[in-house]
Amino acid sequence: MNWIKQQQNNITNTFANWQKVWKSCHKQQIFGLDIGSSAIKIVQLRKDENGFAVTGAGIAFVNDPKDENHKDTNYSKAIRQCLQWSEIKNKFAVCGVNGEETAVRNFNFPSLLPDEVEGAVQLEAKQVCPFNTDDGVIDYQITEGSEKEIKGFLVVASNKILKEKARFIKESSLSNVLMDIDGLALMNCMRYCRGDETGTFAILNIGYEYTSLAILGEDNLPFIRDINFGGKEIIEHVTLETQFNYEVIQQVLRGGEDKEGVKDKINQSLESACHKLISNITETLYYDAVHRKSEIVDKIYLCGGFALVDGFPDLLKGKLPTETVLWNPFDKIPCDSSLSCGGLLHKDGPAFAVAAGLAMRQI
Asked: How far is CA 251 from CA 27, 38, 62, in A?
């Protein structure tokens, strides 16, 4: 029971099957490596009696992420470039996965013997996951146990997505020491940043291909949903409405020079472009509330690369059914004064939330 109570303070324990590498890097620093669909983000943290502090960070965009023929080359090149700019010297990366080939599901079993739990989890995963779990990795975390029942959550990821991320890392001359789920990494980071703050919350990470919605209620069990809709679909919608070139719109959204009045046109079509996403998020929030038999979450923390687009946070604040705030983890996590990445994290910190959560994993 003491072990179970201790685990309630550490929500992630996923894909930790790299023990040989663990032994070699036990006394070394690790860094969080967020391999997104269009950009690579890296964060390295130091932990001491005062908490976490940033010791390195960087970002690099993937050249033509839709080019399947040169995918490995383009991603590994971006990772190496990001590592160089981040000023990080070590080679030990914690990587995250998300999307349709991952799943996080809660379970509630009658009391079982310790050697019976794994079999029950395997069976539960086969029943609730939308893909073939035989071709994947399953892990689980017990959050509560008694003589009557065992509660916890399981995580599953396909071998395909795990091997792809591991391949990108290996071709970048790095060592992948741990795999995690993006949504759980976000929760880990948020729990640290919230400190003693109470109340239920959700984290909304808007990426290029996927939007991750991570919810933590009073029962301490995570609800994770990766919505197959992100910045790419929003840009495509704006492209159709404005007739501007896709690459031009993308560059302006990244903060590039606006020579043709693109930004004004984007703002005019942003609401219609986000209608499907807002509907999906709202439906998920109410589904979770019904499932938990409670009110919807008290607050939504918005992060991810697309959260930095002018006008987008205000749009969500006006459309979502609960308080929504832009979240920068580095308002709580300081950066070493000697580093050049302080300005980057102050300005674009919401895009680094997943990488920060990955970097918080302890080996």
From this structure: 41, 12, 13
Residue whose structure tokens are 């080939």: 101
Give mean pLDDT, residues 139-146: 89
Residues above pLDDT 70, as percent of the chain: 90
Helix (H), strand (E), coil (C) string for 89-131: CCCEEEEEECCCCEEEEEEEEECCCHHHHHHHHHHHHHHHCCC
Question: Is residue 151 predicted with pLDDT exceeding 60?
Answer: yes
CA 347, CA 345: separation in Å to the nearest integer?
5
Question: What are the angstrom distances between the C-alpha of 259 and each of 244, 263, 307, 325?
Answer: 12, 9, 23, 30
Residue from 245, 239, 247 nearest 266 by CA: 239
Angle, vertex CA 86, rays to CA 163 and CA 175, nearest 5: 30
Cα dihedral 249→97→141→187 (10° resolution): -30
Strand order in the sheet with 136-145: 102-110, 149-158, 136-145
Which is nearest to 225 in space by CA: 194, 198, 202? 202
φ, ψ for residue 337 (rounded to 5)? -65, -20
Given the DSSP bridges, would you call strands 175-181 and 149-158 parallel, antiparallel or unpaired? unpaired
Q: Is 20 exposed, middle or buried (0-12, 13-18, 19+ CB in 10 A)?
A: exposed
Convert 138-149 into a string of H (helix), E (strand) and C (coil): EEEEEEEECCCE
CA pseudo-torsion sign 344, 346, 350, 352: positive
